[in-house]
Amino acid sequence: MKRFVFGMTALVCAMSGNAQSKAALYDSTKVEQLQEVVVKGVRAQKNAPYAVANIKKKELNEFSKTGKELPFLFSQTPGVMAWSENGLGTGTTYMRIRGAGDSRINVTLDGVPLNSPEDQCVFWVNMNSYGSLLGSVQIQRGVGTSTNGDGAFGGTVALSSATPQLTPGLEVSGSYGSFNTYNIGGKFSTGLLWKHLIFDGAYHETNTDGFVHGTSGRSGSYYGGLTWMEDNFQIRYKNIGNFEKTGQAWNGVTAGDNDMSLMDGTYGMNTGIETYKDMYEVGLGKFNSLYEYMTYDADGNFAKDANGNYITERYKMADGTYWDKATDNFWQNHNILSASWNINDHWTTSASLHYTYGYGYYREFRPNNKLSKFGLTAVDEAGKNIKKTDFVRKKGLSQNTYGLVWNANYKDDAWDIVGGLSIQNFDGNHFGYLTYAANNVVRQMILSNGDYKYYDSDAHKLDGNVFVKAAYHINDHWDVFGDIQYRHVGYKTDGINDKFYDSNSGYNNQQLDINEKYDFLNPKAGFSWNLKGHRIYGSVAMSHREPERNNFTDNGSYPAPKAEKVLDYELGYTYNGDIFHLGANFFYMDYVDQFVQTGAVSDIGENLTTNIKDSYRTGIELQAGVDPTSWLTIEGNASLSKNKIKDFDEVVEDWDNGQQTIHYDNSTLSFSPSTILNGFVTLHHKGLQAVWHTNFVSRQYLDNTENNDRSLPCYSVSNISLSYSLKPKKVMKEAIFGLNFNNVFNRRYAASGWVYSAIYESGGHGNDNRYYQIGFIPMAGFTMMGSVTLRF
């Protein structure tokens, strides 16, 4: 790292004088305008009638030093919440907007879709420190304006890469904190070379031991870019790669009638803790059933050590060695070639070609699994059926995605019209291997010639859309907006899946033969009124969304999946004054066949869903802020909502009779808190900045039955962020020292989870007193991290 810093510093110094003089040939405002042309097609136009939050470059760059994934920054805006499997905000991370999960949130980078076409979500673990590469982010809540790719249904996140730097620069940073978490990185720009060329690059990675047991991991990203600039034309190539090898904990902290997780991270039973409420008050621990199991003493109780702590053991292999951990391993590489052109005072256009390659797999120990789960039968030397043994499975995928994005913009004093198209093709493969079996007979039977492949399927998806959106400036006070998009989706998957069914001929794979086509028309219209800092706006927008892969393969006892539809009504008011600003946005999202989480999960922690015919989300989002002095800012935002299912038929397992169907009227949607609050107090004076942030999230139901026993209690978390900037002119441009204190009151809470419930009348568990098991996704208590950033 030292050699890198000294070498890049020398390079920057050698080029700085010449490059700075050449940079003077270009107007930096025009350079920024050319970057805006690239994202014009997916961002809301000025004064557009949508609920929007904008995050600027400085905030993104500062956040990138924390090692946390971007959803934790987004969760500081109205109606957004985030959590991570390892409890620290690094690694595998998820988010929701207005209760809508990742697969309903459209994410683009410079207009190019980032959502995985099949799963329709973004795996944020593979986007370590993207914040340092970005110039801005726009978050649209609700349907918003037309965009490219999957998931534009519950919210949109439009990422824009930073404008190429015309003068040479170098930045190196390092952070270290709790649970041996550290983040290192650097980025550079050559500035303008030969009057036209800029080369820039970056590398960042985060390592951590993780809060939850077995979630240690390493993830990172790299970037390399070439930009060719003319006065009104820019062509830019970006190569952005991501990698990770992270320990997994998708089961969370599990608890049942006889086992409870304790504050110290042990796992025990017969502790006097009888309910999940009691467990929650004692404190969520760090036990990870993907990594370890309980041991027993001679009396058949969970064993304790001399200090009274429960003893856990890691899973043991047949050769006496211990299983390390379940790891997710993924590599992804994005290639984007974009060109933007300011044709004249009225016309601009941009086009991007993109290609993304992804490959990954996870390895998991499966203790005492039935052979039938993998479609196997075997007998031992005595001729008896072998029903169970330990396995290690490796499940993975490969992805190739390529496409074209184009848009053109006409703008004059009255009109702002944007039209464009996007076409994207996806090819993917899913595979699964057994790489280990504890039983010697089974091992010899399936692994004598190498790993045993037990499923394999291919997938193809074609996604294309055309759109036009227009804003008309009637006069100084009134603007009207119209937006219409046509989208075609073709999805096909075939082969054999990783589920097996018992038949007369033995166990057979679930056969996949899905070939579906969808055609969607998504219109939007609205208005905006402005006067002396006051703005009133309203809009009506329609959106459709096709099912994702899991909706087809994992819908269990529910009917075949249908496409979803939503009609989104928005009405808002904002005021921006010299020292005070506020805003209120009312929304009503009326869904037809919305996919909602049932509370059940697949065997790798994926939330299972089903279509609900009639449901809605409605509420108000509030924002306010005041700058009473030049050194103090007080801000806050709130999301208050009702999230309801009008009619819901739950299919619940009945251990005595197979299944029951139970009808509900007007129950609350799962994973949709009615209240999300954020408050900020910021002190800023010269180079010093101190921020107090408190976040509150109300109760979340884990299924759609609105049962408090099967829910997550509300939580409140407070964080403190400190930074100090020095500008020693002779040595470097800037040195920034940061210190972050997270969860300062050491609250133990779960931000997400899962539930399994069943009716068992003969065992005393009727519908009002079901047998159930909950998995909590716990977040860490008090943590801290310090950082240093040097800019040359």
Brief rundown of the structure:
This protein has 792 residues and is mostly beta strands.
Question: Top keywords for this entry?
Answer:
disordered N terminus; 7 helices; five-stranded mixed sheet; 792 residues; 2 domains; 22-stranded antiparallel barrel; mainly beta
List the helices and strands and how they pair.
Blueprint: H1 2-23, H2 28-39, E1 51-56, H3 57-63, H4 71-74, E2 80-84, E3 93-97, E4 105-109, E5 112-113, E6 134-141, E7 155-161, E8 169-177, E9 181-189, E10 197-208, E11 217-229, E12 233-247, E13 253-255, E14 260-261, E15 267-268, H5 276-282, E16 292-294, E17 312-314, E18 327-342, E19 347-370, E20 388-411, E21 415-437, H6 440-447, E22 452-473, E23 478-503, E24 506-531, E25 534-545, H7 549-553, E26 564-576, E27 580-601, E28 607-629, E29 632-654, E30 658-668, E31 675-685, E32 688-697, E33 700-701, E34 711-712, E35 715-726, E36 734-742, E37 749-759, E38 771-779, E39 783-791
Parallel strand pairs: 4-7, 29-37
Antiparallel strand pairs: 1-6, 2-3, 4-5, 6-7, 8-9, 8-39, 9-10, 10-11, 11-12, 12-18, 13-38, 14-15, 16-17, 18-19, 19-20, 20-21, 21-22, 22-23, 23-24, 24-25, 25-26, 26-27, 27-28, 28-29, 29-30, 29-31, 31-32, 32-35, 33-34, 35-36, 36-39, 37-38
